[in-house]
Amino acid sequence: MTDSLSHRGPDGEGIWQNVSGHVLLGHRRLAIIDTSDAAAQPMHYLDRYTIIHNGEIYNYLELKEDLQKKGYSFRTSSDTEVILAAFDHYYDECIEHFDGMFAFAIWDEEEQELFAARDRFGEKPFYYLFNGQDFVFASEMKALWSAGIVRKPNLQMLFNFITIGYTDNPQRPEETFFENVLKLPAASRLYYTPASGELTIEKYWDLDLSVQHQKITDKEATEQFRHLFSSSVKRRLRSDVPVGMSLSGGLDSSSIAATASTLITSNASLTSFTAIFPGFEKDESAFASLMARNVNLPHQTAEISVNDFVHDWEKFLYYQEEPFGSASAYAQYKVYELAKQHHVKVLLDGQGADETLAGYNKYYKWYWQELFRKRKLTRSKELPAARDMGVSEKFTYKNIIAALFPDIASVILEKQYLARAVRHEDLTHDFIHLQSKEAYYSTPDTFDLNGALYFNTSIHGLEELLRLADRNSMAHGREVRLPFLQHELVEFVFSLPAQFKIRNGRTKWVLRQSMKDNLPQEIVFRKDKTGFEPPQKEWMKGTPVQEMIQEAKRKLVNERILKPGVLNKPVSPHSSHEADAYDWRYLASAFYL
Predict the structure, then answer these.
(1) DSSP strand E in 29-91: where?
(2) Which residues are 481's β-sheet partners?
(3) Cα–Cα distances in angstroms (integers) from residue 468 to residues 6, 435, 489, 536, in the given order
(4) Element (H, E) at 257
(5) Sign of the CA dihedral 531, 465, 259, 487?
(6) Cα–chain center distance at 480
(7) How far is the C-alpha of 327 from the C-alpha of 181, rounded, in Å?
(8) 0.85 cut: is pTM over it?
(9) 362: helix, coil or strand?
(10) Are the beta carbons of 98 and 59 closer than 8 angstroms?
(11) For the segment 154-205, what is each residue's pLDDT rounded down to a tens digit?
(12) What integer pLDDT is reported at residue 530 of this predicted model?
């Protein structure tokens, strides 16, 4: 099992078994904080606890100082030992003190109990199998396969991925693309007692949408945001190995670069990495170079071709373990590979900003519906302001119905999606009949902007991006850190009224205001949004990728999922994130059957 995860931890390995022989813990180490042998895992503490831990506790120095005042002593400089001391002192409430990304398990020899937990947003993975008695877990499913667990595809998940593009089940967050493997949901902790076979899972944190700062001023909001964001970046720069960052040239990564450059002692220690696609209309190289020059960062680029994509495809799928929505994931994979080539072990990245700060165009309609319901839409002038920004998102009678009758709209939308799914013309009748009993399509509980942002941050949307970031970085033995997902920062953002996220037709208003004096104006007020988006549509027009898609279709036909007639249909190329990208979904899912 540990050998199958060697890419996640190339710096060392350890295995430990307890005296009775019924607990066996293994760990592959990626050494970031305290790279000495003393900080190796499995790590023991007080002759009672043994931990295996993946991730980082960014506020470990503050916690360590506090625990030392309470009488605890430490033999390492690692954050892992701080987890153990905090667990001894606070027990299961220790997680509430952590600012970090983590998945860890602690065996308590005295209580004969396993305690495990996963960070608030699910940045770090935790997969498990529980058969009523035995409990087996790992950071990736391939470790479970290597332990002899049968790999059985979850066809219900596959149905929903092919038809509506979902890579998770919002109603059952523990579900994966494999029937006998579950994941510990984000912001959850787990207790397992081998003697009784009792397994308990509970949620320990959630965003509270009832907390609203209705009277906060623009100045107060931007100052508080700037303070929390700067604190988050500062903590995420803590490392005993070189730190760099992904730089797309967009607002999010540029904000991290600008903030980080003021916090480090030497700009040369923070190298930036960018995926470029010369000649492609959405190539970000000009903006990324502008930002790198602006804050004097060494800048490295990876030019990615369709030949790279074809060559790496099966290896890339092996690391991913589950389907994904577009080729953008591959561009990220190559950026982290570039960081490995330059011996930079830790990277800061911008995931989470779009989901918390309303960065996608789809969020406009939620804000407009909220304004319409409050009878403020016309006088707010948000619709014409958005049009001036080039936003093409529509506001029609359907949005008015959704604003006034959200419960009815939710039912209608769910029925529409299920109806569309069962009419999918490529799927066999038997596959539809067996799998269409339940469509995973869901809508936010509240039809306003914060409701939509909460849905995408905590229920459906962000999780796929975090899974991709983890697999892509760890495939190359790199660690990715996400300043926008510091939980106190996210809690503050969600406490702000909607106009602090969208205003005057612009998304991410409070972030733009906070950073407008620190970034080039071309970046602060960019109207387009790209990220590392490759020319997926052009790649899909070429013979090599079309042959890959045809082979994927053939496999799906053999599994009686697709009708044989699809083999005679021409491939329909799609850009990244375009709706109804069925050929891409066939390509991204067939490998896992």
Answers:
(1) 43-45, 49-57
(2) 348
(3) 18, 26, 23, 17
(4) helix 251-261
(5) positive
(6) 11
(7) 26
(8) yes
(9) coil
(10) yes
(11) 999 999 999 999 999 999 999 999 999 999 999 999 999 999 999 999 999 9
(12) 67
Q: Which of 512, 452, 522 is nearest to 218 (CA)?
A: 512
Per DSSP, the three-state class of 117 is strand
What confidence tens digit (pLDDT) does each residue in 6-16 have?
999 999 999 99
Tokens of 431: 């596959």
The domain spans of the chain are: 3-203, 218-357+462-524, 363-454, 536-592
3-203 domain in CATH 3.90.280.10?
Answer: no
Q: How confident is the model at residue 81 (pLDDT cuts 50, 70, 90)?
A: very high
CATH of domain 218-357+462-524: 3.40.50.620
Q: Are 171 and 145 in contact (CB under 8 A)?
A: no
Question: How is residue 486 written in tokens?
Answer: 């510091």
Phi, psi of 273 (to 5 degrees): -130, 135
Residue 180 and residue 160: Cα distance in Å, rounded?
A: 18
CA distances from 93 to 87, 116, 117, 439 (A): 8, 12, 11, 36
Which of 159, 157, 161 is closest to 178 using CA atoms? 157
Category of 112 on φ-ψ map: left (φ > 0), alpha (ψ -120 to 50) or beta: left
φ and ψ of 543, to 5 deg: -60, -45
Strand partners, 427: 562
Helix axes 582-589, 155-164, angle to 10 degrees: 150
Residue 288: both structure tokens together:
């990324």
